[in-house]
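Standup notes
- HV: blocked on the assembly model, inputs below
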Amino acid sequence: MEKNSKSALIIGAGIAGIQAALDLGDMGIKVHLIEKNPVIGGKMAQLDKTFPTLDCSICILAPKLSECYRHENITLYTLSEVNYVEGTSGNFTVDILKRARYVKEDVCTNCGDCATICPVRGVPNYFDANLKNMAAVYIPFPAAVPPVYIIDKNTCVYLNYGICGLCANICGAEAIDFSQKDEILKIDNVGCIIVAPGYGLLEDVSPLTNYGYGKYKNVVTALEFERLICASGPLEGHLKRLSDGKDPKKLAFLQCIGSRSDRDKKYCSSICCMYSTKAAIIAYEHNNDLESYVFYIDMRAGGKGFQTFLRRGVDEYNIKYIKSKISHIDVDEDDTPVITYEDYDTSEIKQMKVDLAVLATCIIPSQGIEKLADVLGIELNNYNFVKTNPFLPVETSVEGIFTCGCAREPMDIPRSVAEASGAAARAAEVIKGG
Amino acid sequence: MSEKESEDVRIGVFVCSCGTNIGGLINVKEVAEYAKSLPNVVFTEDNLYTCSETGLTQIKNGIREHNLNRVVVASCTPRTHEPLFRDCVKDEGLNEYLFQFVNIRDQCTWVHMKHPKEAFEKAKEVIRMGVAKAAKLEALENIVVDATPTAIVIGGGVTGMTAALSLANQGFETHLVERDDKLGGQLNIINKLFPTGQDASELLGSLKKRVESNPNLTVYTSASVKNIEGFVGNFEIEVEQKGKSIDLTIGVIVVAVGASLLTPTGKFGYDGNIRITQYELEKKLKNNEVKAKDIVMIQCVGARNDERKYCSNVCCMTALKNALLIKEKNPQANITILFRDLYTPGTHYEEYYRRAREAGILFLSYKLEKEPIVEENNVKVFNEYIGEEMSIPYDLLVLSTPLIANSDNKELAQMLKVPLEENKFFLEAHVKLRPMDFATDGIFICGAAKWPVDLTESITQGYAAAGRASTIISHDTIEVEGATSFLPEYNKNLCTGCEICITVCPYKAISKNENDEIEITQVLCKGCGVCGATCTSHAIIIRHFTDEQILSEIYAFGGI
């Protein structure tokens, strides 16, 4: 193992970055894994279950999170971003900006006393799609890695007004450290870089006004729905209408929201047909009185077992598919969404009332990708995803810098995992091959 | 075994809520409390997620503070979590085989979701059984074997070439076996590549050049794998090339045998002449033989139906590519594509679909229940959108047929001892998180042998399999599971030599030695227990599942 003096640096610790880190680590190569959030796991950690196996997402991900945390060859940098890069393939030097956590990582025992006593409430948790509130000192989810609390510097009373400090007083481990500052860490001898920042979602940048999102309570995005049906989410898995708390009887899953459209993004987000079917299946498992309607343009289900999964949806889970194009959503006096759509099979304009409408919003490049591309000197494509050649799929425009997963195109988990292993192989070629 | 037996058994039981997967249905605190009453249990605790870093720390603290020498975790499944908990107890100085898993999620709260009371009772029972077994557990050692840092890639298409090249570039001696007389696989018949439009031969040529000039890579064309013996790190492989046999010692195997093309004999008037497949069209385009003016393409021919349920991924893009090529050459050509769902996911493929529409290619959707009817010069198709049957004239009809599994996958699968899925493609270890691995250690899968994929994904998967394979042969030694079957010296007189164990062993781990005695190769054994269960004289013992251990569970269940 000592024979590889060069390390690899991976930007983004979602499932793609994690897989690449584990593969390289298992090859005996030192890895620096950089994550801008306080915890690793990315979007996959937020999902309830995964298609088509219906594995509980966090259940199959958690062992990988732990493995990353404990791996002798992997060093984790959370709350961190790459700030500056110099050098060339085989020998990069990288500056990391590591933001203050205000909790000592090696001391915190994750007991939660700090959050219990914190007087600040109502801080929305990004992990729960902002549907659940927390204290100013928090951990995004119970199985988080690293298992360390973080203080939200925008809402912490002590950090803003110099008074309070209740958390520091109660912490038996003396883990709270208000004096922490953002710091720059220099990493040299980096042989390769893998860019895996994942993706963002259209709602991050667009109000989605056509669909009444933000205006009507019973119109939610797909990621919000994942949290709503997730046992560890804000409703503890008991799905309700957000307007009146009633059990929904009829759900609509609207595909291509902002995708394949001249108004928003022209491309296809690849994964929505499948995850919407999965969401409808899980919802039915919770409540067998449910019926679900999936409004779609083309059913994109090419992966292993996907067609069978769709058939199961129809045969066993009361899902109906309507080939259609959504026009807009209104609500009636009960806050019940009314969907106006064109039925492609009959070419008629129709309406349907549903208890909850779930928007499969377009996958977009991750926030901050332009800045990252600028720092790394890599090119982005016309949609601002990392530019790659179809026949050199994990290569960026800069030698020695590779990419994988949704950084370069919307894709599902198996493909992200495969690309991650592929990027790891390419990185190993450079590092081992000298 | 003796020292562990003389020692006091001190069991700790950790009961997981698994968020609400378990805790939402049954009271885990009460379950943990119940566990306290069981024999040898000195400590119990419930955790929100036992597998979280916090939960693992609690286990470690428990071992340290309560001097535990056995750990039982009642949570989910060993399939995903056993390695994690074993590592955890090992970190604290306990032998990893002194850990016992009890599955109260899949076996209790999931299957009995509608019966919380019964699920609760069952959880207590399975924990009681697990605790009883834990008391009888013995420390075992993993088996460590040397690993040969070499690789074989079976299949010399673009996927296999990519995998082989990456492994060779990482410094491993790599052997690439192709049964055809030349490398390249399906790429040899393809004309141009989507979405760039470059010549397939150009890409293939440059790839071949790199493969053939790599000093770490040996290519065997007109060759096939005849026999595979051995195990991870130490496979003995017989390759036959033009009647000559070559023996190789290999660390890891990458399967990249690709897929086959379906010939739609008897469907939609297929005649190989004016009613052809997309692949036959590729050839015609390559030779500049396409003179037709009215072209109709039908998608999903022999796919996404009852006979073959899956979508073949590549056919829509292939049709678009070929339609655009015809249109470029002859803008006057009328091209209609009859489709069910157009499959152009992602960024560039969707862009390509747009280009095709802008180029004037007509797209009409049809439904499986109302398939197009091919007549001599017309295709009749019911158009849902206008609610009428349309008749479209053609002088060339192109059928988009799916990629299908190779007919000899079964033989290779048997040689490798790996499974196939229902369509006879190779089945990976886990569809979601282990897409390139087989469940058998040291064997990897990539490309269309696993599922229909396009060129981009074939290349990615070639690299990916190389990456996964490298994690094994980057090390001098490999550790494999120590819970194996064995025939102890003191039982040898019990063995009647009936050889049933040899017949039933799915891993070919059992044989007879020169003294006509049964011998079990430990490193090949997966501990499945079939030999022990069938042994008529109870001579074979399965470590970690000894008769004593299993009986202790049964007695505990029966309250004995």
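- HV (later): unblocked. Residues 2-140 of chain B form a domain with the Rossmann fold fold (CATH 3.40.50). Confidence is low (pLDDT under 50) at residues 1-6 of chain B.
- Next: hand off to the docking folks.
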